[in-house]
Amino acid sequence: MSKLSSLQFHHSNSLRKPSPPTNPPLKSNKSEEMKWVFNKFDTNKDGKISLKEYKASVGTMGWGLGETEAVESFEAMDSDGDGFIDFKEFMEMFNVEGKVKETEIKSAFQVFDLNGDGKISAEELSQVLKSLGESCSLSACKKMVTGVDGNGDGFIDFNEFMRMMMNGKKLA
């Protein structure tokens, strides 16, 4: 499920106060960050994501998936067909090198681009982070956007987002 990858986009910001323990590891490898994301979906902490947990998580994030789309995306991730997404299946959205696939980046960008105008504003970033249970002030989100905004227009366009992902930067 490509939209899950959006959860792992976090930007280190030296002006940001240290995060409480529930936040993703800021200086860690991709596997640790993805484990944190996986645990956000695995609300009953049994080591696997059920369809119910998956639908609740994507619903909370405001992805606007209908019942059919949610079931289809869940089933696409559940590669062994056991009715659950385990961590291995969750990680399969990444290629062998651990880099996000371009299609995953595009899907993640679309999750952050709430109004579909082709760019991510600080307001959109703030809204998505809040939907994930992360508190981030608008001022802090503006600083994050500025850190990725290559052309200085105050927004993150897809090329800037792609460059950020390919260079291993983090958004929040």
List the helices and strands and how they pair.
Elements: H1 30-41, E1 48-50, H2 51-60, H3 67-77, E2 84-86, H4 87-91, H5 102-112, E3 119-120, H6 122-131, H7 138-148, E4 156-157, H8 158-166
Helix pairs in contact: 2-3, 5-8, 6-7
Main attributes of the structure:
single chain, 172 residues, mainly alpha, Recoverin, domain 1, 2 domains, two-stranded antiparallel sheet, 8 helices, 4 strands, 46% helix, 6% strand, disordered N terminus, EF_hand_dom, EF-hand-dom_pair, repeat, metal-binding, calcium
Structure characterization notes:
The protein has 172 residues and is mainly α. It folds into 2 domains: 1-6 and 25-99, EF-hand (Recoverin, domain 1), CATH 1.10.238.10; 101-172, Orthogonal Bundle (Recoverin, domain 1). It is 46% helix and 6% strand. It has 8 helices and 4 strands, in the order H-E-H-H-E-H-H-E-H-H-E-H. A two-stranded antiparallel ribbon has the order 1-2. A two-stranded antiparallel sheet has the order 3-4. Helix 2 (51-60) packs across helix 3 (67-77), helix 5 packs across helix 8 and helix 6 packs across helix 7. The longest helix has 12 residues, at 30-41. The chain is elongated. The chain starts with 29 loop residues before the first helix and ends in a 6-residue tail after the last helix. Mean pLDDT is 75; it is low at 1-27.
Q: Write down how many β-strands occur, each being a DSSP E stretch of 2 or more residues.
A: 4
Task: Note the main sheet.
Answer: 2 strands, antiparallel
Tally of contiguous helical segments: 8
Instruction: State the helicity in percent bands.
Output: 40-55%
CATH topology of the largest domain: Recoverin, domain 1
Question: What is the gyration radius calculated from CA atoms?
Answer: 15 Å
